[in-house]
Amino acid sequence: MKDKIEKIQAEIEAYRAEQPEQAEAFRLKYLTKKGVIPSLFGEFKNIPPEQKKEFGKILNGLKQKAEQKYRELKEAVDRKSDQLTDDIDLTLPADFMPTGSRHPISIVRNQMIDIFKRIGFTVYTGPEIEDDWHNFSALNFVEDHPARDMQDTFFIEKDPDILLRTHTSSAQIRAMQQTQPPIRQIYPGRVFRNEAISARSHCIFHQIEGLYVDENVSFVDLKQTLYYFAKEFYGQDVQVRFRPSYFPFTEPSAEMDVSCFLCGGKGCKICKHTGWVEILGCGMVDPNVLSNCNINPEKYTGFAFGIGIERTTMVKYQIEDIRLFFENDVRFLEQFRSVV
Ligand code: PHE
What we know:
Elements: H1 2-14, H2 20-31, H3 36-43, H4 49-86, H5 104-118, E1 122-123, E2 129-131, H6 132-135, E3 155-157, E4 162-164, H7 169-178, E5 183-192, E6 204-214, H8 219-234, E7 240-247, E8 250-259, E9 276-285, H9 287-292, E10 301-308, H10 309-317, H11 324-327, H12 330-333
Parallel strand pairs: 1-5
Antiparallel strand pairs: 2-4, 3-4, 5-6, 6-10, 7-8, 8-9, 9-10
Helix pairs in contact: 1-4, 2-4, 5-10
């Protein structure tokens, strides 16, 4: 027994700790309930009574030594880790951390949302998976309209038709079903069309559509709102023109062009030497569409418009291939780092 105690005592004295874990290992090994020292106390009952006094002293001494050693070890490792923190040179330059950049589509979308928010429009988004009614029927597309054709639409299910929305106008329908006028909203989102992918067109792209329905909304409101948008987005000198067009859900319908901001209207590659760039479709909401959504067309009128974000971004940053937006090549995306 005596030998055993001496051996343990030597071990304790020789114990070294560099790390906090090693100090903790010491405590676990010697001092915890099932540790070496408490189990020595367990053996105390086997000692002949006449030796008990002597061994009691030795054992208590050992216990105190171990406790003292543990305090020393702990203090030493704690001091060491404090020193480590002191060693950090706060004046050194920080490690280089590469920052990301916003995607050009997000940049342009956010700019557009900001502009419309300033004149009272709020953002509403609908689902990308739609039914035929929200995407087509409610928007006054007749049964055999070519846009319903398999060529343009990605169908998920037939009868009843479930599809990937081909425009965010379906979100306008959902909004009008849920709220009575006044409604003044914009609808940013992804849309899908079954088109061959080329430099000019893609099967996925982004739109921001807008809708304003209230009493006495007229074509003048439409023109002024979109004129304001064009000036904010392209600069105060921009000129706009409206050309008659056709959409099933608006009557009358128009397309809006802006004067080419690159050549100022003189003619260049971007405007195909016409001096004008087409940027959106628009029109007065067809009364049928209002009735389809339980809005009284005798009382309310409205206008709607739809802007293609890819097209606008391509023109703005002179990007010649729409596929660049979807390839996520860092060399392309990095170029927009300074734009917020
Ligand atoms: N929904 C049309 C499109 O996708 C755009 C549009 C919206 C036109 C609203 C007029 C009014 O092409």
